[in-house]
Amino acid sequence: xxxxxxxxxxxxxxxxxxxxxxxxxxxxxxxxxxxxxxxxxxxxxxxxxxxxxxxxxxxxxxxxxxxxxxxxxxxxxxxxxxxxxxxxxxxxxxxxxxxxxxxxxxxxxxxxxxxxxxxxxxxxxxxxxxxxxxxxxxxxxxxxxxxxxxxxxxxxxxxxxxxxxxxxxx
Length: 170
Prior knowledge:
There is one protein chain. By secondary structure, the protein is an alpha+beta fold. Helix content is about 35%, strand content about 20%. The protein has 5 helices and 6 strands; from the N terminus they run ββαααβββαβα. The chain has helices spanning about 25-30, 35-40, 50-65, 115-125, 155-170, and strands spanning about 10, 15-20, 70-75, 80-90, 95-105, 135. It has a 6-stranded mixed beta sheet. Helix 1 crosses helix 3 (about 50-65).
């Protein structure tokens, strides 16, 4: 069984991954959650009003009380902007298994931000925590993400499980 610890603040060179806050609503609307192209990549609805985003944030923040809930706002350190989100979900407690989902605003694509965020999450899952494998999936026709895991560098013991699963996805 996993000993859950919930959404913790994680940092990388350029990013802070932290629980969402209500003050993230403007950035969410401006950079990603109201963009149909971004939201359709992840099969998520488009949110166009502050009220809709507040309802979503209510859901996220209410879930942070659970130790088995993992969803982070991706904050660019330099600007303080919420540029996207990343989450661990479909956690299998018996087999120490999880899936990762993420979303990033268009302005922040192709800058290595998501590679950095995924690396921080994988370090959290495998090095600080007791997950033994994860699954990564993308919608058919979306090739934007294919190089992502190839750019994530982690200790060899972690990479074995990751790349055997990555090969199955490719």
